[in-house]
Amino acid sequence: MAEITVSRPPALAIGALSRRTGVNIETIRFYERIGILPKPPRTQGGHRVYGRDHLKRLSFVRRSRELGFTLDEVRGLLELVDGGGYTCAEVKTITLDHLADIRRKIADLRRLERTLSDMAGKCKGGRVPECPVIDVLFDASGGALSRGPSSRGR
Fold first, then answer.
1. pTM here?
2. In a designed cystine with 145, which of 25, 93, 133, 139 is the match (CB 3.0 to 4.6 A)?
3. Is residue 154's pLDDT more than 70?
C-alpha cells in the first residue's frame, strides 16, 4: 500500500521569515503592529509561527516598498486583494497615481541637481573664507549675497 503524505505549509520562525524575504525582523514586527501583516499564531512558548500566506504577503509588501509605494498605498493594494473583488482598473489607478508622484520627485531632483551644480561651479575651491556656495545658502532669495560680516550674521 502506498504511503500518503500530507503537504504542510511551512512553519517559519521570525528569523527564517526575515531571511527568506529580506525584511528586517523589527520591520516584520512593525508591519504586524500596523496591520499590514496579520499577527501569526504563537507556540505555547510564545514564539511567532509564520506560514506560507505570511511569506507571500510579506514578499508582496517588500516588493511594493522597493518600488516606492508608501505604506498607505501598500495598505490600499492589500485591501483590494483581501477583499477579493479588486479590478485591474483599481490597481492601475493606484499605480498611475504613484507614477505621477515619482515623476514629480524626479523633476524636483533634476532641479536640485542643476542648483547644486551651479553653486559648485561658482566655487574656485580656494582657501579664502569667502565661498559662493555658502553665500547662496545664506541668501533666502536664492541669489548671491553681498559679502561682508553682516551678511552672515557675524
1. 0.68
2. 139
3. no
